[in-house]
Fold these 2 entries.
Entry 1:
Amino acid sequence: MMRNYLFLVLLCLVALIFVAIVKIYLFAASSPVGLTLENTIDISGLRITDYNFLSKGEKNEIFLIRDGYEKRLFSNQSPITSIGLSSSQKQAAFFYLLTPKTSTDNIALTIFNLRNNMFKEVYRTSHASWDIRSDLHWLGDNYVFFLRYCGTACQGITLLDLNTGKTKNAVLSYPSFPNQPVKTHFKDWYGQEFVMNGLVSNISSEQAYLIFQLENPDELSHEQRFLFTKTQLRAL
């Protein structure tokens, strides 16, 4: 009887070692060269305070730099390229590479619910070089936006509804010729049109506010804020 018990214990140990070896092999096979389990971390392993210590690398990598160590951020062995925490701190949204070894154009956006540790993919594209030209930004707790390619003298802004996965596009238009007034024309996600003095140099958000930083050679830089109500933007 003792022999049978020892035999079962031995089998369990062998099984655990085998699972560990397979896990390491699968990670190495799917991860970029030079990454190991020691210098990476999965998003599910982040503490809420860790989000304050996330930093972006030169090649769109996201790193956790804290307490003397640096770890690259992944989701289920896929590299994360942009991440943001909602203002309520109940959700994180992130872009990650679907095929990191073959293409950087295949990207998905997933929501990570920090209360129940559940993941929900809400958007993906196979043309990220066109569709995604910036980090993601939250607007409230149910929407994010990011820049997209538009063409000459313009910039697209995609609004993504995290509940439905549907998108809407807005456009910033700039002067095409040197002798034109230094103004930015903004056609928002609901068809409203605004004219702002200066050229947009940065786009950000704060809770439910869309914020444009504007630069004008003849004036001091300033910002234009819009309140996002889910059904319209209101200039402030």
Entry 2:
Amino acid sequence: MAGLAVWVYATGPSDEEMIDAALEEAVQASREGRPFGVLEHMAGNFQFNGQAAGDRSDIIRYVRTLKPDVKIQDRRLTLDGDSATWTTPVKIVFGDSESGVGGTFEIPDVKIHFRRSFGTRMTFFPYSSWKMERVDAPNFLPPMLPF
């Protein structure tokens, strides 16, 4: 069994590939208004600019309503053990014709922080994945939804 675990880790995707895939899946889900596709890549204690991002229902409503289209323009990854940070300029387009909330924003220096998490599948098979734990976007306040 230990040999299987070593083989799984040795032949699986690299950390960089797993982080890139997690980010791409979350961005695609956000663009399509699929909140659960975003939430699966977020840590339970996710923060935006040092603040709690709200509870799951807030995030679900936000993604479904505004469908943030995040364009990551130039990825620079720093990997340090079980944590990693993408530093990149980002362009975000928010749009909701019904509420009138929306706009396009360009943020020059966004840091997307990831943390590795570990688990098992079907009780025996170990795996690791990367979750977004924090996004720092200096001087950016996202649009708020009307209640």
